[in-house]
Structure formats: C-alpha cells, structure tokens
Amino acid sequence: MPHLPQTDRSGKPIGPDALGSTTAPLLESPYCRRCRRGVSIRINGLGVVTYQHANKRGDNGDHDPEPVPVTEIPDPIIECDFCSAPDAAWIYRCANQFSEHRRVTTRVVSVSDYRSRHAAARVRRTDTEHAVTQAWGERWPACHGCADLIEARDLYGLIRRVVDALPAKLTRGKHLVRVRGELHATYSEVFDTLAPGRGRIIPGHPLGIWPGTETTS
Ligand SMILES: [Zn+2]
Ligand SMILES: [Zn+2]
C-alpha cells in the first residue's frame, strides 16, 4: 500500500476521533482478492468506509477492490509503502495515522479582478470542507533500500529516495515543496512512533517474522 501524497491532502495528521460516527470495523492491512495488491481505506464525511487500490494513479483499474485481510491471500504483492518498489522485505510498526482530505467548495475572487482577468483572477479566499479521511494503518512494509534509511533514522535520505521514485507530475515545479512537506510530516510521525524491531517478510508470512516469535503477528 504505497502511502503517497494526495493532491488535496492538508498535510496535517489528525487523530482517530476525527472519524466521528464511524462504526464499521476497519480491515487491517487489506489487500484485493482479485489482483493481490494493497488497498487503502478511506472514510468520507458521513463515516462511510470505502476501499481503493493503493496505486500511484489512485484509480481502480478494471475492477473494484475486493478487500480481504492480507493473510487470506496466498501470494500477495507487497509493495514498499515508502517508494512503492514491488519487493517489500521488512515490515515496521508505528502508530496509526489518519490524514484529512479537504475539498474546495468556494473560491472567492474580487469582482474587478474577475472582469479584467477572468480565469486568471487571483483567489482571495478558498473555503474547503472535510471530504474524506484516509487511514494509513500501523504496518509499513519497506524494501531493502528504504529499510536501510529507516534503520539509520535518515529522515531526509528517505524523503529524497521517495521523491525520486514518484511520478514526475507529482514533483514538478511547485508541487515538489508541498510533497516534501507532506512526506516530512508523515515520516516524522512514523519515526517518532516506530515500535522496536522489524518483521522479515517471507513467502507465507505477509505480516513478517518478528524477532523472538516464530509466527506472524
Ligand atoms: Zn484489485
Ligand atoms: Zn522502498
């Protein structure tokens, strides 16, 4: 499940209480039964939980996800949550993070500006409303390259690596500053709440073999 920045993301982690009236149980680490890939969890303003393929484009391809726990899929395709490499080797645990996505409802431009400039009128005020909350989950699979940077607690090295792996349209021009800021906020929280140790992902153990245990957790 790649944790990629969203274009409408506020960049501000919010607490689970922001889920409001959500009562539906959330699947931990959901994967799609059909394509064996990670699925991300989104909760809209009414508390309705939806699942979406966690790919770079954010679309669902040719099918809607059929989310099931990863342990129910014989051979899941586990991508690095950081750089999206297809061969996650380790799994880290940290506090669950939620991020709020806001939707623009009103853009206010000045009348004179609009008359003279039309579409190029400067926006004087932008109103947004809560659109959806995304749950990132507690488990973060990582490839060898990202895991090395996590072990070294190299926050900026990790951000650089992930930015380099992102599609160019997400990091072009002014997007780059915002993306870096969002990754910094998300990964700082990951580093701050990282549980000790890490699990080794091997076939048959998608949740990792953790030190001192013989089974998945
Ligand atoms: Zn699928
Ligand atoms: Zn990676």
Could you characterize the architecture of this molecule?
It contains five helices and nine strands. The chain has 217 residues and is α+β, with helices and mostly antiparallel strands. It has one domain. The strands form two sheets. Strands 1, 3, 4, 6, 7, 8 and 9 form a seven-stranded antiparallel β-sheet that branches. It has a two-stranded antiparallel ribbon with strand order 2-5. Strand 3 and strand 4 form a beta hairpin. Helix 3 packs across helix 5. The protein is globular, with a radius of gyration of 19 Å. The protein binds zinc ion (2 copies). The site of one zinc ion has 7 residues, from loops.
CA distance, first residue to last residue:
18 Å
Radius of gyration: 19 Å
Mind describing the biggest β-sheet? 7 strands, antiparallel
Q: Please report which band the strand proportion falls in: under 5%, 5-15%, 15-25%, 25-35%, 35-45% or over 45%.
A: 25-35%
Number of strands: 9
Task: Catalogue the ligands.
Answer: zinc ion
What is the average of the pLDDT values? 78
Q: Can you write the helix and strand succession as a string? A: EEEEEEHEHHHHEE
Count of helix runs: 5
In total, the number of domains comes to 1
Shape: globular
Q: Percentage of helical residues?
A: 10-25%
